[in-house]
Design brief:
Blueprint: H1 17-31, H2 44-55, H3 68-79, H4 101-125, H5 130-141, H6 144-150, H7 156-175, H8 177-180, H9 184-203, H10 207-226, H11 233-265, H12 278-282, H13 288-292, E1 303-309, E2 318-325, E3 340-345, E4 353-357, E5 378-383, E6 390-396, E7 404-408, E8 422-426, E9 443-447, E10 453-455, E11 472-473, E12 475-477, E13 489-496, H14 502-510, H15 523-536, H16 550-554, E14 560-564, E15 571-574, H17 578-603, H18 611-632, H19 648-669, H20 673-702, H21 709-714
Antiparallel strand pairs: 1-4, 1-13, 2-3, 3-7, 3-11, 4-5, 5-8, 6-7, 7-12, 8-9, 10-12, 14-15
Subcellular location: Endoplasmic reticulum membrane
Membrane topology: Multi-pass membrane protein
Family: Belongs to the glycosyltransferase 39 family.
């Protein structure tokens, strides 16, 4: 029974020494001197703010993309014991002692280091030689721009890592397809492909480009499988379902989980709340949740309410009125009704309170039991402080003459009777009998007499002049089609009115509400709203000193100064390895020309290279050339401020194309021993130049040692580069 103990237990393993060495060199190149400089470097001033908010559990919205990358940066801060207390207000600011600089920069650096062995694995899985794979890894290792970007609290290195991991995983899965379908390793690499794609998209939406490329590649491969007569219909269905599960369903589920964790962590109210709906704000601890805690849910006749416009951008605002009237005549000569002004006011104020009145009754208090207002009911809205009725009539609005003026009615004993009846339409109702609910219901107010819809037009235009206190215009939109958010309102603060006398009512309007109601949103409701805000929220694109166009990237006619030492000439720049970038452009052009040549020749039934070599050539082009194209060309369609670092995922794929082209030249175009020897000598000389450029620009890659003025001037190889030189 214990016979197995007579022999020693032996474990054997194959270790790729080259892969291990490349990984170690990658770690050294990215981790060396990681705490230097101990100051805020370029976009660390941007991402650091989000890390601090994570540490303090304060909600925020970043329109640059999903939260997974931010959470990874915050994980580094958490592991380093960061308490979030640092003022991220300027580039170059010295970090205080409570900021764990090494820990915050660790994950991007590790991701950048692991890109080196991943580059090696991609070429191996594409069935290129060990020498070609080694060359690809060394080019990534010595790429100055990738080193710079991975040594700071930035997201591009993490994005590139997940992109390359997805490509490696898919290639490994595909290579197992013929002989090990549905095996454990087959499932592992297929599932890892989907996970890596989801993580790439979760870091930045740029990851979506590579995800689409791999989905298209998987679709093409499955199309070829359909033509395989050796596969049964059941087998094909199983293959399809496996790919759908791993490449679509699991990535979607994982993407949702990023937001779930994000929302679970950030449960406190913060400065970004105002762009979210009242319901979302009320779900956060503090802020609106404290104000609205205990409000009644159902709006009834006699309810005292504040109405917030759902659009919420460029600023939130509430339906508001005050005792001042519209001027008898505007600056352009048009006349007004001279009624009481109604505006949208971007601050909480007692003049934001309105009372929901039943047109058939005089009382302004809630009956017992309350009579709820439902979809389709006719109401009057009475301004709480002035007791005048919300009104609109066929008079042009002050800033929008095509729309009706909205006012609070004053009886001047002239032929302009009150028109103050409004129909409540619940936009997000589930049925036509839905009750109007606090925070949850989004409603339109349709004027009974004219069918105009109450609209906060000032959110998309100029504010009122001095006579309107620069507040936002509210109009009756006569040609209202659809449910534009500027026409939709929700009740934010709410109480049941108890005082019939005006003086008592004014005291009541100033007092806080205290009633019991819960308004928790579901995760999917919060996710949908947050996702929509991320996709639609646009900061004003301003020209940046280091912004550039996509055309500037190919020839690296631009750079970015990341950091400058306050006294010495030490500085850090985002600059690529000139030799590598030029070679990558040449390789892409050579690949394109050779591919067109081969296609023309093959059309004439002339086959210059064997079929397996042609398939290898096309596969490499699809991954490396396709990866460059999908990560680069979309930027020509984007209306946003662009920077050189946006090109890094694309140039990474383009660099992988260099050894592909070189091996093809050696194997198929250099047919004599002499030509092969000459090509090898040229490759050695070329690679020496790559290493020379890497060493030359290392001082501005790592920020040390500090260079003299003459040395800095010598690094300005292009007139368009902005090398920082202090005036003496």
């Amino acid at each position: 029974m214990l016979g197995f103990l007579k022999e020693p237990v032996v474990v054997t393993a194959k270790i790729n020494v080259s892969l291990v060495a490349l990984t170690l060199m990658g770690l050294i190149s990215r981790l060396w001197g990681l705490c230097y400089p101990r100051a805020v470097v370029f976009d660390e001033v941007y991402y650091g703010q989000f890390v601090s908010l994570y540490m303090k559990r304060i909600f925020f919205v970043d329109d640059s993309g999903p939260p997974f990358g931010h959470m990874l940066l915050a994980l580094g801060g958490y592991l380093g014991g960061f308490d979030g207390n640092f003022l991220w207000n300027r580039i170059g600011a010295e970090y205080s002692m409570n900021v764990p600089v090494w820990s915050l920069r660790l994950l991007p650096a590790l991701a950048g280091a692991l890109c080196v062995p991943l580059a090696y694995q991609i070429l191996v899985e594409l069935h290129f030689s060990h020498c070609a794979a080694l060359g690809a890894a060394l080019l990534i290792l010595l790429e100055n721009s990738l080193i710079t970007q991975s040594r700071f609290m930035l997201l591009e290195s993490i994005l590139i890592f997940f992109i390359l991991l997805a490509v490696v995983s898919y290639l490994k899965f595909y290579n197992l397809q013929k002989h090990s379908a549905f095996s454990g390793s087959w499932w592992f690499w297929l599932l890892l492909t989907g996970v890596a794609c989801s993580c790439a998209v979760g870091v930045k939406y740029m990851g979506l480009f590579t995800y689409m490329l791999l989905l298209a590649t998987a679709g093409l491969h499955f199309w070829h499988m359909i033509g395989d007569q050796n596969l049964s219909n059941v087998s094909l269905l199983c293959h399809f379902l496996a790919r759908a599960l791993a490449l679509i369903i699991i990535p979607l589920g994982l993407y949702l989980s990023f937001f779930y964790v994000h929302l679970a962590l950030l449960y406190r109210s913060g400065p970004h709340d105002q762009i979210m709906t009242s319901a979302f704000q009320a779900s956060l601890e503090g802020g609106l949740a404290w104000i609205t805690q205990g409000q009644p849910l159902e709006v009834a006749y006699g309810s005292q309410i504040t109405l917030r416009n759902v659009l919420g951008k460029p600023m939130q605002c509430w339906l508001h009125s005050h005792s001042n009237t519209y001027p008898i005549r505007y600056e352009n000569g048009r006349g007004s009704s001279h009624q009481q002004q109604v505006t949208c006011y971007p601050f909480k104020d007692v003049n934001n309170w309105w009372i929901v009145k039943d047109p058939g009754m005089q009382q302004l208090v809630v009956s017992n039991p309350p009579r709820p207002v439902r979809h389709g009911h006719i109401v009057q809205l009475v301004h709480g402080i002035t007791t005048r009725y919300l009104n609109t009539h066929d008079v042009a609005a002050p800033l929008s003459p095509h729309s009706q003026e909205v006012s609070c009615y004053i009886d001047y004993n002239i032929s302009m009777p009150a028109q103050n009846l409004w129909r409540v339409e619940i936009v997000n109702r589930e049925s036509d009998t839905d009750v109007w609910k606090t925070i949850l219901s989004e409603v339109r107010f349709v004027h009974v007499n004219t069918s105009a819809v109450l609209k906060a037009s000032g959110l998309s235009g100029a504010s009122l002049p001095e006579w309107g206190y620069r507040q936002l215009e509210v109009v009756g939109e006569k040609l209202a089609k659809g449910y534009h958010q500027s026409m939709v309102w929700n009740v934010e603060e709410h109480r049941y009115g108890k005082s019939q006398e005006q003086k008592e009512r004014e005291v009541e309007l100033h007092s806080p509400t205290q009633m019991d109601i819960s308004k928790n949103l579901s995760f999917m409701a919060k996710f949908t709203e947050l996702q929509w805000k991320i996709l639609t929220l646009k900061n004003e694109d301003t020209e940046h000193k280091y912004s550039s166009s996509a055309l500037d990237w190919i020839t690296m006619d631009t750079n970015i100064a990341y950091w400058l030492h306050p006294t010495s000439g030490a500085q850090i720049h985002l600059l690529g390895n000139v030799a590598t970038w030029a070679s990558a452009n040449a390789a892409a052009l050579a690949y394109l020309c050779l591919s067109l040549w081969y296609l023309l020749r093959r059309r004439r039934k002339i086959y210059d290279i064997p079929e397996d070599a042609w398939q290898l050539w096309m596969a490499a082009g699809g991954i490396c050339g396709g990866g460059w194209a999908v990560n680069y060309l979309p930027f020509f369609l984007m209306e946003k401020t662009l920077f050189l670092y946006h090109y890094l995922p694309a140039v990474t794929f383009q660099i992988l194309l260099i050894p592909v082209v070189l091996q093809h030249l050696s194997d198929h175009l250099c047919r004599s021993v002499l030509l092969k020897s000459m090509l090898s000598a040229l490759i050695v000389a070329w690679f020496s130049s790559v290493y020379f450029v890497y060493c030359t620009f290392s001082p501005v890659t790592y920020g040390q040692p500090a260079l003299s003025l003459a040395e800095l001037r010598a690094l300005r190889w292009k007139d368009t580069w902005n090398i920082l030189i202090r005036k003496q």
